[in-house]
TrEMBL record, chains A, B:
Domain of life the protein comes from: Bacteria
Limits of the Non-reducing end beta-L-arabinofuranosidase-like GH127 middle domain: 411-509
Stated name of the protein: Glycoside hydrolase family 127 protein
Database matches in InterPro entries: 6-hairpin_glycosidase_sf, Beta-AFase-like, Beta-AFase-like_GH127_C, Beta-AFase-like_GH127_cat, Beta-AFase-like_GH127_middle
GO biological process: carbohydrate metabolic process
Domain Non-reducing end beta-L-arabinofuranosidase-like GH127 C-terminal: start-end pairs: 511-605
Domain Non-reducing end beta-L-arabinofuranosidase-like GH127 catalytic intervals: 20-400
SUPFAM superfamilies: Six-hairpin glycosidases (SSF48208)
Species of origin: Paenibacillus yonginensis
Amino acid sequence: MTTTAKQAGLVNWDGVSFTKVKMTDHFWRPRLEVLNKITLPSCLEKCEETGRIANFAKAGGLIEGEFEGIYFNDSDVYKVLEGVAYSLMLERDEGLEGEADRIIDLIAAAQEPDGYLCTYYTLVAPDDKWTDMEKHEMYNGGHLIEAAVAYFDATGKRKLLDVACRLADHYDQTFGPGKRHWVEGHQEVELALIKLYRATGEERYWKLACWLLEERGHGHGVGAIWDKPEWGPAYCQDDVPVREIKKVTGHAVRAMYLYSAMADAVHVSGDPAYVDALQRVWAHTVERNMYVTGGIGPSHHNEGFTHDYDLPNESAYCETCAAIAMVFWNHRMNLLFGDGKYADVVEREMYNGVLAGIALSGDRFFYVNPLASEGHHHRVPWFDTSCCPTNLARFLPSIGQYVYARTDQGLVVNQYMQGEAEIALKNGNRVTLKQQTSYPWSGTVQLEVSPERSGVFTIQMRVPGWCRGYRVQAGGEWLSGVEALVERGYLSIERHWAAGDTILLELDMPVQLNRAKQEVEADRGRVAVQRGPVVYCIEQGDHPGLKYDEITWSAFGNLRVEYREDLLGGVTTLEGKDGNGRPCRFIPYYAWDNREPGFMQVWIREKEEDQLYKF
Amino acid sequence: MTTTAKQAGLVNWDGVSFTKVKMTDHFWRPRLEVLNKITLPSCLEKCEETGRIANFAKAGGLIEGEFEGIYFNDSDVYKVLEGVAYSLMLERDEGLEGEADRIIDLIAAAQEPDGYLCTYYTLVAPDDKWTDMEKHEMYNGGHLIEAAVAYFDATGKRKLLDVACRLADHYDQTFGPGKRHWVEGHQEVELALIKLYRATGEERYWKLACWLLEERGHGHGVGAIWDKPEWGPAYCQDDVPVREIKKVTGHAVRAMYLYSAMADAVHVSGDPAYVDALQRVWAHTVERNMYVTGGIGPSHHNEGFTHDYDLPNESAYCETCAAIAMVFWNHRMNLLFGDGKYADVVEREMYNGVLAGIALSGDRFFYVNPLASEGHHHRVPWFDTSCCPTNLARFLPSIGQYVYARTDQGLVVNQYMQGEAEIALKNGNRVTLKQQTSYPWSGTVQLEVSPERSGVFTIQMRVPGWCRGYRVQAGGEWLSGVEALVERGYLSIERHWAAGDTILLELDMPVQLNRAKQEVEADRGRVAVQRGPVVYCIEQGDHPGLKYDEITWSAFGNLRVEYREDLLGGVTTLEGKDGNGRPCRFIPYYAWDNREPGFMQVWIREKEEDQLYKF
């Protein structure tokens, strides 16, 4: 780490690949099984049905026909391939791999001799390439690169990686200092190029990514978006140079992919101007523009941000992809700065904003995630713009990467999921970790720590932001004293570890009532129920005879906490009597719209009591 | 119960005597031992040393000498005797009983031939009896009556009870319809007369109590207090007729004793005007004029109330007796109305406002209970006006009475304390209850229910107002469905009970941050930490180098919850890092000023975070 980086408060923790983490829990493990059995095959089928895969065959001249769909449809195929790759890393599947190989051959065929690859332009407007920066040419390419790196890691097969490198080289030859300008309308390629640099060691990819970041905000943007006054350059974060960013603006997914790439850039450069910009825009995003579910981007109009504290519930846009992108960004921030507040956001997204995007059945999806619905919003199997299902397809199998991180002094436990992991410390000592927990339904976590060679190192356990009270044991002893206090979201347990030593962490996981800042007009006089990381909602099916927005909740109401194995794939429900004494059931927000259609609400009207003191 | 009573929402539960409840817990049991070994003997000694006991001997002509002390000093002797009686009911002690008998002989000797008893007037101003209603003549008498009833219950000895009856008869002959008016300046005799009615069955005592209540607010008051414009009749609740009371006013202890007697009156009469007045003034007291510790009466000037939301911390008066009197009143309200919100107040007082009044050593007391101190407020062994130590002496041994109540359908568990009890249901079936819990440090309670004859009845378990989430088992099965939801503060478990059946109640007991209503100026921008029923504070001794009011607390701070057997008689401490990252320890408020002197604060300045959502 450079001196500059240290001065900027960077810790630069190492991520730990999800391939090192085997989940055996009752919450995520069943979802991954559904993903393999249902979601991935169904996404591939939809890509086939909608001509997304055929577009490659057509562009490669293997079959006749016209381009079908929208200009960014290539990206969906890449994202499903990336998901397939992650899935293969967890579990070999010859059928799935064979199908992936078949598609990769078509992709390779579609690449033009100079490396260019975007079936829309090849088939529809070959002479108009690189004329409209909003047309997602590099966005498509970015997803290709991510898929290629993943598939190479999963299988060792280079074919798609070679296609990706040729494409990246094509970009590099066409754009850059002294060459053409380019402001990619939909960011994605920047973080992909950094991945490609890491996979190949080729610094030109890294440099191109940084150049693309620096291109923004200087008036180089050209294309349909830039010409529309109601959107303008802020829509795709081309309004100010990235190092001058103060506020989150425009399209939510684009913004998050941009900040993710900036965090990647800081990881290497330690550039203090980037650090400042990231911390400013993080605060602006999380402290003024994030729903309690982790959802971001309230507006349908620009699929993004409007003005501070504008967080309407019924009309909330909260694209599933934006929640996923928040995970990408916050994970990177966590590794950069070593602060648990970023892992808190990762957790908030994982259990709420992201997970709501997919039905329990695995084959129906939300693109838009309102926090209240009168009953007409439902998941569907696919969309014309199907970025969200395909983003889930690659997000879910890789979720294990958010659990651990590696530090100079040892390791970090960021998320709690039952399973096993093997992590090599920086000194090479391999540590096997066995996590036992029924998180997110219980706050008790037992971690068995078995280093190959016993020795002194530090294990940091995250104490989530929602958790006020905790207890912790190491080696059978309750820890006390100043050394077991939480700092920047973590307990740090430095001791001599030998095989079989355990940490027992007990996080209080009470029912909590969220109240929003007064500035949030939509939530005034309302509460949102939360338990642990899980945000709750009420659904019509549990409240026969009651109307939308009729239920009230008293801050002093008592809720029976009940784990229901038979309900919604196994959920903890909260049941009590509402402000009018009527039975009332809260279910996890992520699980809504999996039964009969009906209203749903996260923010419930609060019955104002005359009590002097409120918790 | 009369039809009127039912219409007024009265349930008229039966109280269960503390003699039926044997505590075996680690919280209250040791305090009762200290009470027996230290507090009672030390109070008797102080009564001796200060001439309080000798005043009786002098008034009875047994020894020569002048009256010593203040005109209400008789009451302290009576209150200690009442405490001795309660203690004897729990455990025989020949030494203590012998000493009580000796004092009772002196008291009997001091009674004048017509039944009059008040050593101040007998010795100092025999011709001025019944001329100043503020001179506590009946207040003294009320405490005599309470002691007499208790001592008769404890020992079967009638001597003091006979003295009490003669005194009450003297009152009855002197005052009442067609006789003289009387507005007792310091209420107490009213509830005592109702006790005497219950002990003797003599309706004239009950009627006299009701007449005394009705005397108030009609301009009959005469005496020093009434003549002082800065106090006036509101000081002793003589400003309005009791059935028209809307707001709590004046001296806090007097007000609470008045409302307690009114609740006793309603218990028999069901008078809807009294019901309305009680519910109005309860809301006004609890919702606008009660500290988070349960303390009431902010002002030193009148030992009582000022204006709504006037709850200063440093200068809080919060007399220990007023907290005890809140228990008396709220216990009666709970039995009358069957609502857990009154038992919530009982609990708040028990673990905070009342308990802070006595040192862990049992021989030092607070009269005044501020919620913040710069370091100059300390418990002392005795006061010239020693109502508070002597009130604690009678309150603590009888604390078991707040645990259970009996209903038409079965029984109620109001407070959680480990121990055994035997309660006869209304149908005569005797139920043995074994409560296992480490409350207030844990919210898990196991109750073994063993009826003599198995059968169907209902057990109501209180779910405290501070508890948001709970789980409950009966007979080994988790309860679910609408029937296990909380109504008016209780879970009602109706089932067939056989010997050895158990209830397991798990109350979430997280660390909680109290915030006061905006109207409370003193607490603006501040939080008070609470866990379960226990309100916490910070003390200087745990924070070397830090100044008064320097510590801040973030709503998102994490606290390590640690039971410390070695500290302050065994307490759960909460430790974390304050808003400036400095180690910070919270201890129970009741336990403050038991170590080196220094500052103390309950309401800590809140570090304002920019977070959108707050729990």
